[in-house]
Write a structure and sequence with these properties.
- This protein has about 240 residues and is of the alpha/beta class.
- Helix content is about 35%, strand content about 15%.
- It contains seven helices and six strands; from the N terminus they run αααβαβαβββαβα.
- A six-stranded mixed sheet has the order 3-4-2-1-5-6.
- Strand 3 and strand 4 form a beta hairpin.
- Helix 2 crosses helix 4.
- The protein is elongated, with a radius of gyration of 19 Å.
Length: about 240
Amino acid sequence: MSVKNMNSGDGETSYANNSGVQKVVMTKTWGVLDETLKDMLTTYNHDSFLKCMKMADLGCSSGPNTLLVISHIIENLSKLQEHAPREIQVFLNDLPDNDFNNLFKLMAMNTSTNTNTKTKSNIECYIYGAPGSFYGRLFSNNSLHFAYLTSSIHWLSQIPQGLGKSNKENIYLTTTSPPQVFEAYSKQFERDFTTFLKLRGDEIRGGGRMVLGLLGRSVADPTSKDEFKLRSSRKHLPIWLQRGL
């Protein structure tokens, strides 16, 4: 089974020109993102954080949204004044077939996110590619201060186990999907998300943070046409901790 990636390039059908919904979801996380970074850097105000903050954008894809989130983070870090890091290393992660070439070309044309340069805020920014699945190890132990992900963790690591042809070749849940298909998708997501959290727990150092932006719904029916919901996952953290995540 081949692993698919988003349409490359910057043409009419490319992901770069068809990611407006993802941008909306991403910008809805700004408040939580800003608060999280401020809390991290003002609470753990020691040399490791101030000298060089290391962060990862997981599932970054290849469009302008990646530039937007990096620019936003740098802009808000600069507002922290004495708490702001002097340098920031950004690791852009996606599957190996992701169009990293187009992504770095876009960054070369954008002065606020130009790779390996000093930004307008005088925070030196170094940007690297980190290809690989985020359902596997990406970084060494305790090497990251911050991780960010939005609109990508709903992509599973594989076709749900035991699905077979019971979903009639659909790649998602539909109103005609039988109950065993709903259960198969739910179990696969639980396995994948548990793996994801355990891996990031190894990679993010003590005092570090992670912000996840996921599409959700307010009703149990997964086929309902629900509108965007933005909710903090903080109330779920004690449950995850009890499970050892």
